[in-house]
Amino acid sequence: MGAEHPRTFVVPVSLALGEQYRRSGEAVLSAIVVGYEAAQRMHVAAASALYSNGFRAVPAIGVFGAAAAASVLSGLDTRQFANALNFAANMAGGVSEGFGEGTIEDHVHAGLAARAGITAAALAGAGGETSSGTLDGADGFFSTFARSRDYDLGALTAKTAGLGIRSAWSKPFPACQANQRTMRLIRSLQPAGLAPAEIERVIITRAAREYDAPGICSEPPYQNMVLALMSAKFTPIATLLGKPVTESRYFKKSFGDPDVEEVAHKTTLLTTDAGDENITVEVVRKDGRTLTLRSAEEAHLNWDTDLEMRFEALASPRLNGATETVLDLVSSLESARYIGRLMQLVRA
């Protein structure tokens, strides 16, 4: 699995600095690839340890991806690049507590990582020097942020089968990653949806690790969008009822959906035995029948997200008729001498 939300901090930094320094489309794409690679390697090396110690990966690891992309577009040499990553380590941080109340904190994490990455590259480019042990020293990033947890420094330089950007993926549902498999199972095996009046109770059983994040096990009522998309009850129940859960505006406008809340009150969350990654959703109907959905029986459907279609749906209301032009520019970005035209359109 790829690093967490790398496009939210690598792509904006690459576009902004690409425009500022009048870089070509090829240079911007190269910066994006390098930014993804840095984020992915840091993710493999330390994400599990950081999560265990309470840090969120987007701001804690995102600074490295942003700094790497910024370093490429800023024309830094190897030593300056290394200094930029070390400066980034000093700006890492971010916790997940806000998810439990659905606050705005998680919404600013990517922006903080992007800003820190640009600042780190600027400091390095201006001649700022850093310690050779900022990452792996006794008091460096790994020993501090991943304290008392396992981490893998070898992942930073290990030979890999492919670039980190190839492990990136887009969620089919605009909800917490922990809820994706359960939602996909329900949509695969029960695509038509059920009516709330049919349901007596629901039992959802899945791996304990998928209940770990703050807000996952929250009970209704859900007071805001974040609580709804984080909830291990709201998201699968909305899917079970046939709600439009592939659309982000559903969560923005319907986090208080009374149908979902009614069934969520009758839903129980259970965990599988250790090592069991299977998911089971049992729906006991009021007529006495039980509908059982098991991940082992899930249809082998292609769940790749159509990013072009999603972009058109989200961007069309904001681009004033320029959506197709933007898509054309993006598809030919590698040959663009300068990305200014693209930035002019998306800023309009």
Provide structural commentary.
The structure is a single chain. Strands 2-1-3-4 form a four-stranded mixed sheet. With 348 residues, it is α+β, with helices and mostly antiparallel strands. The relative contact order is 0.12. It is 46% helix and 7% strand. It has helices at residues 7-20, 25-52, 57-73, 78-91, 105-125, 141-145, 180-189, 225-230, 234-240, 248-253, 258-264, 307-315, 323-331, 340-347; strands at 199-206, 267-271, 280-285, 290-294. The longest helix is centred in the first third of the chain and has 28 residues, at 25-52.
Contiguous low-pLDDT stretches (5 residues minimum) are none
Distance between the termini: 35 Å
Query: What is the helical fraction, as a range of percent?
Result: 40-55%
Task: Please identify the structural class as seen in this structure.
Answer: alpha+beta
Strand order of the largest sheet: 2-1-3-4
How much beta, percentage-wise?
A: 5-15%
Broad shape: globular
Report the biggest beta sheet as strand number plus sense, adding barrel if it closes: 4 strands, mixed
Q: Topology, pairings included?
A:
Blueprint: H1 7-20, H2 25-52, H3 57-73, H4 78-91, H5 105-125, H6 141-145, H7 180-189, E1 199-206, H8 225-230, H9 234-240, H10 248-253, H11 258-264, E2 267-271, E3 280-285, E4 290-294, H12 307-315, H13 323-331, H14 340-347
Parallel strand pairs: 1-2
Antiparallel strand pairs: 1-3, 3-4
Helix pairs in contact: 1-2, 1-3, 1-5, 2-3, 3-4, 3-5, 4-5, 7-9
